[in-house]
Amino acid sequence: MSDTKKVAVIGAGPGGYAAAFMAADLGMSVTLIDPEVNPGGVCLYYGCIPSKALLHVAGLINESAEAKNWGVTFTKPKVNLDKLRSWKNDVVLKLTGGLGQLSKQRKLTYIKGTATFVDNTTLEITSGGKKTNHQFDNIILATGSRPATIPIAQKFTSRIMDSTRSLALKDIPNKLLVIGGGYIGLEMGTIYASLGSKVTVVEMTDGLLPGADRDLVKVLSKRVENLFEAVLLETKVSDIKEQKNGVKVEFEGKHAKNAGKLYDRVLLAVGRTPNSTGLGLENTKVKINDRGFVQVDEQRRTDEPNIFAIGDVTGEPMLAHKATHEGRVAASVIAGKTAAYEPKAIPAIVFTDPEIAWCGLTEVQAKKENRTIKVARFPWAASGRAASLGQTDGVTKLIIDADTDRVLGMGIAGHGAGELIAEGVLAIEMAATAEDIGLSIHPHPTLSETIMETADLLYGLSTHYHRPQKK
Ligand code: FAD
Question: Is 444 a catalytic residue?
């Protein structure tokens, strides 16, 4: 009898395929099950990748309009929607096809289908209309999440869209209402506004991107004032009625006077719900909490010792890189290695214009937890690279432990923040102090220098921003 471990992974998103690839690389016999023809999950088919392809084009359109300030004028862009859509689809096909190839190279069994639990070691796999039972030593649950709804808009239609429908880019509505000022709403709003829609964003709380530090959000809020037709904060949608000529929306709260307005389309971006039902989990000891997330320990093990769970189905933050990391931890644990999911910093990026990124401790969180911290903020107006890019409204900040000077968090608002934030993750994970960052030579002229100068600023020693330390 072979002693090769048989592992099944349910769901081939960034969590599931990373776990499956790692398990195969570590010598296990792996079966990966997902309804799509190739791995990719929400992230590649309906999330991260298509949205970022379209945001790239949105950035291009916005930057060419801005170029008039630098003496270069372009004519108004003509958008060939069919071509744009097929380019975006090609990007997705190329990447998911690549994952298909990587699965073959690793000789794992990929089944286009769905799986449910018969018991803790048996899966019923439905593929091509046939149901068959299969036995595994270990199972990794990576079924992800789906768009959440609100009671007044339970059903998605061609006019009331979720993020998946909005990414299909059927047309460019004249008037679009985005419900929810979180990252998905703002990213999709940016895409449609850049392509020509009049976009209104409505958000229940008193600011965009609830949970993020306000000084970072302020940079974005100023810019979206120009891009969007309106941002309605502290306002709730109380009713939505689809009519022949549009969607009639009623509001409550600060901007209730907008009530009764007609929109061509409405995008509901109010969060995501874990896919933890209909999986036969009741046939196992796996436990689900009151928000529908599967309960796991640091090794991503569920209450059923041979079943692991990773990614969106296990809880916040619902991000692809968090899912991937968890997947690799679970595969390592199954292989008998010492591994645990214990990140000190998970980066979050909002790919708007400008980008907002943060990792580790935020100021909002520090306040809630009564932590004693020091904060240094470096305005991009003092950065040569930011000036040469016409991006002087950005800001870089560091959150530092007041006793040890260890870097606990980093936040950036500005061009390329998403690429820059990786330095913060490394600094936090390596227990760097602000002095370590200040003493590391950063290349000139780059936006990365703003991180070094933020650290110098903490000691009143920034070269390009004179703020002497108080004696
Ligand atoms: P998923 O990617 O959700 O994959 C789960 C897979 O499991 C799916 O393919 C599903 O069909 C399959 N499945 C479900 N049930 C079964 C079953 N019974 N049997 C077999 N298969 C099943 N994250 C980022 O980090 N960066 C971004 O820029 C970003 N942008 C986003 C933009 C949008 C518009 C959206 C919607 C999301 C975005 N996300 C982003 C979030 C990201 O997509 C998710 O965090 C990530 O996909 C979660 O990965 P996962 O592996 O947990 O599950």
Answer: yes
